[in-house]
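Quick check before the chapter quiz. The format below is the same one you will see on the exam, so make sure you can read both the input and the output lines.
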Amino acid sequence: MKKLLLPLLFLFVQPALADEETLTQCRQIDEITERVACYDKIVDSHVPVDSSDSAEISTPPESAESNTVPDSQSLFGKNDAEAKRIVETSMAIKPIDQIEAKVTDVRKSANKKLTVTLDNGQTWRQLDNRPMPLKSGETVIVRKASLGSFLMEKQSGSRSIRVKRVN
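Here is the expected output.
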């Protein structure tokens, strides 16, 4: 029984290793529709798809939205990240990882957290309790951090605070 089980196990492991390499290649594709098509190709090679379903699967749902400016009705019910991506794509807005601006106003709340207004009109509120002396006229960099959060740091220093945009 053991002699029969080992060759069978090897037959099942070999395709799984090949799929892992293909999945890694798909993961490196930046364009979302191309990445999904790559994943679909892998799944379709293992599970046959009806010809009636293939037309629906091959047409990405956002293809109609990418040619026109989305309205509030078409974005209703989408999660924030997906809605943002649809709007950016339809308006050809290139995403950025950081901004640089001058501080126009700094306010400290009762719990000693900063609310910083920048010269571009944005207002950011501190989320953590780390001290960062900041004055009007100083240049700060606000950059994306992990899990959708943002960090603000002085242009001249390495200390940063976690912030959230309030307007």
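If your answer matched, good. The first strand starts at residue 98 and ends at 108.
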